[in-house]
Design a protein that fits this description.
119 residues; Sulphur_relay_DsrE/F-like; alpha/beta; five-stranded parallel β-sheet; DsrEFH-like; DrsE family protein; 49% helix
Length: 119
């Protein structure tokens, strides 16, 4: 069994470089999974990462990369409470992003031995 890595995006578009770096790191780790012994890569959007997908934001580049990550098999989730509280369910559903309580995702990462990188 290989390593498991969770990339947590907590920054918003006011820190666009940080957000995009996290997404690109997820992509690059996934591309080299087999040769580096990585079993699973997950992406979790939290706080600023959730807000970055709000309508009216300049987020097309982020959405395109999220689509690529999803299509490559990376599990992409976001904090269900935040998405619901900010009435963003349609945006996340339309972009194929699953919802999970952050406490459950973070607990699972600890229990299952994930290495967590935050951006």
């Amino acid at each position: 069994m290989g390593a498991k890595i969770a990339i947590v995006i907590i920054s918003g578009l006011d820190q666009r470089d940080k957000v995009m770096a996290g997404l690109h790191v997820a992509k690059r780790i996934d591309e080299a999974r087999e040769e580096n012994g990585v079993e699973r890569v997950e992406l979790f959007l939290f706080t600023g990462g959730v807000r970055a997908l709000e309508k009216g934001e300049d987020n097309n580049e982020m959405l395109e990369l999220i689509k690529e990550l999803r299509e490559s098999g990376i599990s992409i989730e976001a904090c269900s409470n935040q998405v619901k509280n900010w009435k963003m369910e349609d945006t996340f559903s339309r972009n194929g992003i699953d919802l999970e309580f952050a406490r459950d995702a973070f607990s699972r990462y600890a229990v299952e031995g994930y290495t967590v990188l935050s951006f």
